[in-house]
Amino acid sequence: MLLGEIVFWVSVALITYAYVGYPLALSVVSLLRTRRVEKADVSPSVTFIITAYNEEKRIAEKLENTLKLVYPRSKLEILVASDCSSDKTDEIVKSYGDRGAQLVRAPVRKGKEAAQKLAVEVAKGEILVFSDVATILAEHAVSNIVKNFHDPTVGCVSSVDRFVDQDGRVSGEGAYVRYEMFLRSLETRVNSLVGLSGSFFAARREVCKGAWSDDLQSDFNTVINSMRMGLRGVADPDSIGYYKNIADERKEYDRKVRTVLRGISVFMRSLALVNPLRHSVFAWQLLSHKLCRWLVPFAMMTAFVSNALLALSSRWYAMLFLIQILFYSVALGGIFWKPLLRLPICKLFSYFLLVNVSIFQAWIRYWSGERLIVWEPSKR
């Protein structure tokens, strides 16, 4: 009985800390410790890197959007890193050569980060800006994001994600996206981000060159590289990346699995940064934001099993078990009967369950020895 109670309450505590306790702790710490970002209107040389694989249907729109960016043309280099595209992507990019776009083609398809590395190696800009083909930027996006690099402590900068509907209109963000953006603002205030928005982020050239890994998730690993150099990552609320949500739910689920699987790979190769004696605050952030979040599926399972056993001999635990049954019933109901998703609470429960199932699947694939390198861009 005592062991079961310990297992149950430790599991509940981990789940609560990962999603509620950590943000609350950051809020408290921010009252005592605040690291401001010293911005200024600066215009360093910039290399804008677009990563593409078989994007013949969208690359022209992305290049047109990029060419409309308000930034000194003499200081803006545009590179398209093609991951050995087999369609007309490369031909379309070459047709923009007289307007400033340059093609960097990988001779063999090795994945997103490998293609980005080829572009990083030839980039001339002081600041490297990375953007996906599916992400549309406002005309001042680059000038806004580089303002953060006036602060010498900043090594990389993340944008803010915004959804647009199929007609291109800005739509309301889901609770999860709002939660993540809020968490990033707190992390920036206290110390550093733990991860960047892969669809649109920027970094100093020295953070990327010589340290870029062609087999590790770039938006996570760039923060890691910054911390190793004594710099930090920050979120910029004025730098916004607009993108369409993935309409196909199965593809969205697969994307979540891939993201976590690649994140685990970065984490496991960066364990030195979990040393609290050398990286006190960041070690805490890394464990809290990443590892604790990735352990929640296991905590959910142990909480369910231990609660079921405790319910056999306690009305109190029987009531708690009924609450769990209700949660899973509502969540599964939303997954298998879509009309229920019109209810906000049902949508939230279903999303939370699916996120944690995807994390569990990512762990299974990681333990089986799978490592994702080659990518397939999400079709939005």
Structural class assignment:
alpha/beta
| Major sheet attributes | 8 strands, mixed
Query: What is the tally of helical segments?
Result: 12
Weakly predicted, low-confidence segments: none
Helix-strand sequence = HEHEHEHEEHEHEHHEHHHH
Strand content: 5-15%
Keywords:
380 residues; single chain; globular; alpha/beta
Describe this structure in words.
This protein is α/β, with parallel strands linked by helices. It is built from 12 helices and 8 strands. The protein has an 8-stranded mixed sheet. The chain starts with a helix and ends in a 13-residue tail after the last helix.
Q: Gist?
A:
With 380 residues, the chain is of the alpha/beta class.
Topology:
Blueprint: H1 2-32, E1 46-52, H2 59-67, E2 76-82, H3 89-94, E3 101-105, H4 112-122, E4 127-132, E5 136-137, H5 141-146, E6 154-164, H6 175-190, E7 200-204, H7 205-208, H8 218-228, E8 232-244, H9 249-268, H10 280-311, H11 315-336, H12 344-367
Parallel strand pairs: 1-2, 1-4, 2-3, 6-8
Antiparallel strand pairs: 4-7, 5-8, 6-7
Helix pairs in contact: 1-6, 1-10, 9-12, 10-11, 10-12, 11-12
